[in-house]
Amino acid sequence: MFATRKLLREAGVLGLNERNAEFIMRMNPRRLYPRVDDKVLTKKLAIEAGMPVPELYGVIGNQAEVRRFSAIVADHESFVVKPARGSGGDGIIVITGRSKRKRDSYRYASGLLVSGAEIEHHISNVVGGQYSLAGNPDTALIEYCVKFDPLFGEVSYQGVPDIRVIVYRGYPIMSMVRLPTRTSDGKANLHQGAVGAGIDLSSGRTLRGVLGNDVIDEHPDTGALISGLYIPKWDFILQSSARSSEVTGLGYVGVDMVIDKDLGPLILEMNARPGLNIQIANGCGLAHRIRRIDEIFDPEADSVARARVARQEFAAERQGTLELSD
Amino acid sequence: MTTRYVLVLAGILTLIGLAAFIYKWQVLGLPLDASQETPTWTVETTIRFDSGPGSINVNLQIPTLTPGFVTLDEFSVSRNYAFGLNYVGADREAQWTVRRADGPQTLYYRIIVYEDPDSDQSDLTPQLPIPPVIDEPFRTAVEMVVADVREHSADEASFTSVLIRLFNSPSPNPNIQLLLAETQTRADFVRMLTTVLASERIPARVIRGIPLQDQQRQAEAVPWLEIHDGDRWRYFDPSTGDEGLPDRFLVWWRGSEPLYRVEGGSNVEVRFAVQRNYIDALAIAEHRAELRQSRLFDFSLFALPIETQSVYSVLLMIPIGALVMVFMRNVVGIDAFGTFMPVLIALAFRETQLVWGVILFSVLVALGLSIRFLLERLRLLLVPRLSAVLIVVVLLMLIISVVAHQLGMETGLSVALFPMVIIAMTIERMSVVWEERGAGDAMRAGAGSMIVATIAYLVMGMPWLEHLIITFPELLLIVLAVVLMLGRYTGYRLSELTRFKAIVSK
């Protein structure tokens, strides 16, 4: 039923209080938050740094602009609407196509149809601040909808899986892939019911999966084995996420990436308060890895070097991570 | 590094708080425990009026003989006014005079009494009243009523009882109907009783008193009947005819004089505020403080006007609620809506009582949620939708109050005490969570809020803690120190022990 404090401490598990007090408050100065909290700004910074991001179709900044929606998406079959300052994936809708007969009728990732008026209502909610922290007025982004990479076809139910990398002082220290399920409605957020699977940093191979707070081996909808998948372009993913520290200036950040069928890995967003369930997905605590980085930290190292160090240091075997495959 | 600063700061705060506490407790002798004392009561009369042109002369009836109570102290607060006491017969009048004043004026008269059941405080034996001269047709009516009552009674006391019962009968006989036709107020009613009693040559008079209850910001003077049976004064309830005074009834003045007379002023408003205090033991402490030339008392809570004191006796408990909130969030790890929503709900529980509070709150939120889901279909913009929810909440509160009143459940009325804006925000947050993360998460956070509110209510309602904080507000510095330290608590939350158990269970 319960783990003891001592056991968690030995496993190096990072708790919410410690994450907030020791890492978020110390490593992430408040003035830098807009760089990650505002997705429009994040995208701009990432493009300047030469990082790959999904193409931005349009931005809706106030209620009067909401009616521009259909013009913005006129040339695009599929797209994603998200609040610029949303948190935890709330307020994101994914449109993967349109009705064949009515151009004004859009199709969710789940296949359900939704009218343009309903999407406009959603956008005006977003602009009104329903999904932003503290309810402040917000901006809605309409951007490229990532194309499914067949690699994850077996282990995700609609929607696109994304890869979360925790980066501490510029070094990737832990990673997982988040797989959408039917309950998560095509979204890749753990608290909405998506499955998380830890990734061995050295090889880019998936470890065990976690749903809620429980460990699972198989995807709840497809039944496919979650572990043992190799993430393509793993080096590129680690290097891109390692650069996030230069781009954002944050010392403790979660980088979310997706793999597009045509464009390869793209950076979706960054998070100054990344969740802690990644520890369950990896069967391993963050605290030991953070301590190790503090020991070997090299201010001169560039992102490629830091990614290499991460691959050497945090191999799953060396950390004694549970393996469910092989 | 930061942790060390926090520890030092918390240490300093704790030291200051403890030092002030121990000084007040040990040296000045403030009571640690409320239950050991006899309660003392402070009644404050506030006279507000607009000054007219010319000189101002204000007379106020004040307590003289107070059966069951002993006066500890009395004083008046009135800037620029000359203050004096006039003795009129057995009564006393406070008198304020000033040659000129501008704008709204406020005068205070404050009396501090403590209960003493042995305090006799009877008035002198009065002379037998001269039978009043009454005009027809009232005269015949009075005579017939007197004859009727005399037939059913043995002595002065039973005469009075029977008379009162006749007066209060739901279908009074025509004579009494005639007499009562002229009486408009409760006081008139009692005055008419004294007239009839005088015809029977029983000395009788109206007395007015204040039933003492803790933290009344607006008390009313209640008329009562007093008669003399030739031996001593006796009291009668003018609505039942039962003998005796109500519990904790402070007799304010006797006779038919008006409570106040204000010459040279208009728009007069007189209010009584009552507060139970620990000034009894404090008075001794205060005396000691004077001897030691300590200025501590001039800056204590008890130096404030009573109305403000009763506000602070609630406000001072809020930090305790906040402490509970911090503990539940950061050490236990319970999910709840809004940072301080549970504390505000807990405050509302103080008025509604716990069980009713939980029921009313749940009903209100459940109804609000269902209407919020209907509103969702209308696709309203955010702020109008929030306002619509707020209006619906206010209407729901009204409906619950009215329905509960009709069903005879008076507790239902207290639903009006819930902070409606907070409830509206809770409904909005809950419905968003419901849609985004499912009913389970919404219910869990809702239940979490309820649990935290309940615990905060129970802790904030502990009488000894309440007494301690009100008497020693410096203890809040220690609360602050604890909150600061919890702010640097980096250990696991209790809920994380289950959350992360999958990592360590091999």
How does this structure look, described?
The complex is a heterodimer of chains A (326) and B (506). Chain A is of the alpha+beta class and 326 residues long. Chain A has two domains: 5-51 and 148-319, 2-Layer Sandwich (D-amino Acid Aminotransferase, Chain A, domain 1); 56-144, Dna Ligase, domain 1. Chain A has helices at residues 5-10, 16-27, 33-37, 39-48, 69-72, 116-128, 234-248, 278-282, 287-296, 303-313, 316-319, and strands spanning 56-60, 79-83, 93-98, 105-108, 113-115, 140-144, 162-168, 171-179, 195-200, 205-211, 214-216, 252-260, 264-271. In chain A, strand 7 (162-168) and strand 8 form a beta hairpin. The longest helix of chain A is centred in the C-terminal third of the chain and has 15 residues, at 234-248. The radius of gyration of chain A is 19 Å and the shape is globular. Residues 318-326 of chain A have low confidence and may be disordered. Chain B contains 16 helices and 13 strands. Chain B is globular, with a radius of gyration of 30 Å. Chain B has a domain at 318-460. The two termini of chain B are 36 Å apart. Chain B has 506 residues and is an alpha+beta fold. In chain B, 31% of the residues are buried. Helix content of chain B is 49%, strand content 20%. In chain B, helix 8 (318-332) packs across helix 9. At the A-B interface, helix 1, helix 2 and helix 6 of A face helix 12, helix 15 and helix 16 of B.
Structural class of chain A: alpha+beta
**Number of separate helices of chain A:** 11
Average pLDDT of chain B works out at: 82
| Extended strand count of chain A | 13
Helix content of chain B: 40-55%
Strand content of chain A: 15-25%
Low-confidence stretches of chain B: none
Cα distance spanning the termini of chain A: 29 Å
Count of distinct structural domains of chain A: 2
Output the CATH class name of the largest domain in chain A.
Alpha Beta
Radius of gyration of chain B: 30 Å
